[in-house]
TrEMBL record:
Source species of the chain: Paraburkholderia bryophila
Catalytic activity: (6S)-NADHX + ADP = AMP + phosphate + NADH + H(+); (6S)-NADPHX + ADP = AMP + phosphate + NADPH + H(+); (6R)-NADPHX = (6S)-NADPHX; (6R)-NADHX = (6S)-NADHX
Family: In the C-terminal section; belongs to the NnrD/CARKD family.
Ranges where the YjeF N-terminal domain occurs: 13-209
Function: Catalyzes the epimerization of the S- and R-forms of NAD(P)HX, a damaged form of NAD(P)H that is a result of enzymatic or heat-dependent hydration. This is a prerequisite for the S-specific NAD(P)H-hydrate dehydratase to allow the repair of both epimers of NAD(P)HX.
GO biological process, one term: metabolite repair
EC numbers, comma separated: 5.1.99.6
Names of the cofactor(s): K(+)
Binding site for (6S)-NADPHX: S59, N60, G61, G62, D63, G124, A125, G126, L127, S128, R129, A130, D153
Protein origin, superkingdom: Bacteria
Chain residues that bind K(+): N60, D120, S156
Classification via NCBIfam families: yjeF_nterm (TIGR00197)
Name of the molecule in the record: NAD(P)H-hydrate epimerase
Details of cofactor binding: Binds 1 potassium ion per subunit.
Length: 464
């Protein structure tokens, strides 16, 4: 894994700070290193203008005091609005507050008068409650006045672990330290953060190894090593033979999936269809071979051909006993299988039957509704597994399977689900997290907007 693509949750970030201080870097120096880039990034992007820095009671507020001092030293007109009495600050935040020689006033909407730019340094990624009181009122007023907002770590009110919105207002720029958090990439957090900058604050790379994250921003380095290398003497017979189950009467999705298999590199692609649908499929497909299934047992006989190296069932297959039976027949081959759409929904009342049948390489691609039906979880979109997904050290069970999932990493439900059947999961969601059998949970940052249409989850697109 590329360590620069790692995502740290609030607890891991807190631990990284502790380890950094233990390595010999003073906490006040670490805070100075965190606040200085905020001022620098502002000066890179905007001309000198009146600034109000909104400071909270903790480390984020301390970063705000540093940023304010640095801007003032560069002759920017800066004021600070503080959420709590100044004499209540403690630790490193109190140290940097004492270095500030400019005005400090209570945090109210009136503190924004005359400002053109607002630095949101109230709360960081560890906030787990709704934004309220004067902090919420002041930020809402800044948004209503259309002031430019720069957030420190995350926009206040954004949960760094999940991307959930607890009252945050959108920022034009967010500066975070050391590594990104899951909430920077997961919606609605990605939208609320605006431009994102990761600042180097001097944290030793050895700290990363000790924290051992298992959530990563998607990057080709995560998976290019697993792509099969093309051989100079290869041909269509050596590049794999994909078999796609084609449904009836809904036939478009299966045809698109078959074309996608061919376009992505399969040497041969066959689509198996009910005999009644053969004329439609044959007329619509050119390089894709079509095999008619006329009688019960035909699919099983087709699967007996070992030349089929990759299988797909689900798009347009229909929900019911027939699809369930065909899915189990495919899984019984122990060949690489992709389960999508109706192949998943057909097991919503008995997911253990599906999980128990998966013995070979398998990837599932549920959308939001299919994921909820299959895993019987509820809650916020990326917090579905709060109660079901227990940590491995407690050794709790789900059904008859021992859980090996991290402790309440709610944004990791795609990865948590993979442990249930030792497979992979690509979840069709605006942030599109997915999980792998080794427990790594990559999150895609730049999802193609063209995917937000019917069939967009099937057709292969150029990376970009």
């Amino acid at each position: 894994m590329n360590p620069l693509t790692a995502l740290l949750d609030a607890q891991q970030m807190k631990e990284s700070d502790r380890l950094t201080v233990a390595s010999g870097i003073a906490g006040v120096a670490l805070m100075e290193n965190a606040g200085r880039p905020v001022a620098q990034e502002i000066q890179k992007r905007w001309a000198r203008c009146p600034v109000v820095v909104l400071c909270g009671p903790g480390s984020n507020g301390g970063d705000g005091f540093v940023a304010a001092r640095r801007l003032a030293e560069a002759d920017w007109p800066v004021r600070i609005a503080l959420l709590v009495p100044r004499n209540s600050l403690r630790g490193d935040a109190a140290y940097h507050a004492a270095l500030w020689r400019g005005p400090v006033e209570p945090m109210t909407p009136a503190a924004l008068d005359g400002a053109a730019l607002v630095v949101d340094a109230i709360f960081g990624a560890g906030l787990s409650r709704a934004l309220e009181g004067s902090a919420a009122q002041t930020l809402a007023a800044a948004a209503a006045r259309k002031l430019t907002i720069v957030a420190v770590d995350v926009p206040s009110g954004l949960m760094g672990d999940t991307g959930a919105d607890m009252g945050a207002v959108p920022a034009a720029l967010t500066i975070t330290c050391f590594r990104k958090k899951p909430g920077h990439l997961l919606q609605p957090g990605r939208r609320l953060c605006g431009e994102l900058v990761v600042a180097d604050i001097g944290t030793p790379e050895s700290v990363f190894e000790q924290v051992s994250p298992n959530t990563f921003e998607n990057d080709p380095a995560l998976w290019t090593h697993a792509l099969p290398a093309l051989q100079v003497d290869g041909n269509k017979y050596t590049r794999g033979h994909a078999l796609v189950w084609g449904g009836y009467p809904t036939m478009g999705a299966a045809r698109m999936a078959a074309r996608a298999a061919a376009r992505s590199g399969a040497g041969l692609t066959t689509i198996a269809v009910p005999e009644v649908a053969l004329p439609v499929y044959a007329a619509a497909l050119t390089s894709i071979m079509v095999s008619a299934l006329a009688a019960p047992g035909d699919l099983e006989r087709l699967l007996a051909d070992r030349r089929y190296s990759g299988l797909l069932i689900g798009p347009g297959a229909g929900v019911g006993d027939a699809t369930r039976t065909h899915t189990l027949e495919m899984l019984n081959t122990r060949r690489a299988t992709v389960l999508d759409a109706d192949a998943l929904s057909s097991f919503h009342d008995d997911p253990h039957l599906l999980f128990g049948a998966i013995a070979g390489p398998c990837v599932i691609t549920p959308h939001e509704g299919e994921f909820v039906r299959l895993f019987d979880v509820a809650g916020d979109k990326l917090c579905r597994a709060s109660e079901r997904c227990r940590c491995r050290d407690k050794g709790q069970r789900y059904g008859n399977r021992r859980s090996r999932w991290p402790r309440h990493r709610q944004c990791q439900c795609a990865g948590n689900s993979c442990h249930r059947w030792r497979g992979g999961c690509t979840r069709r969601h605006p942030a599109r997290p997915f999980g792998s059998r080794d427990g790594a949970i990559p999150c895609i940052r730049c999802r193609c907007l063209a995917a937000r249409r019917r069939g967009g989850g099937i057709w292969p697109r150029a990376a970009g």
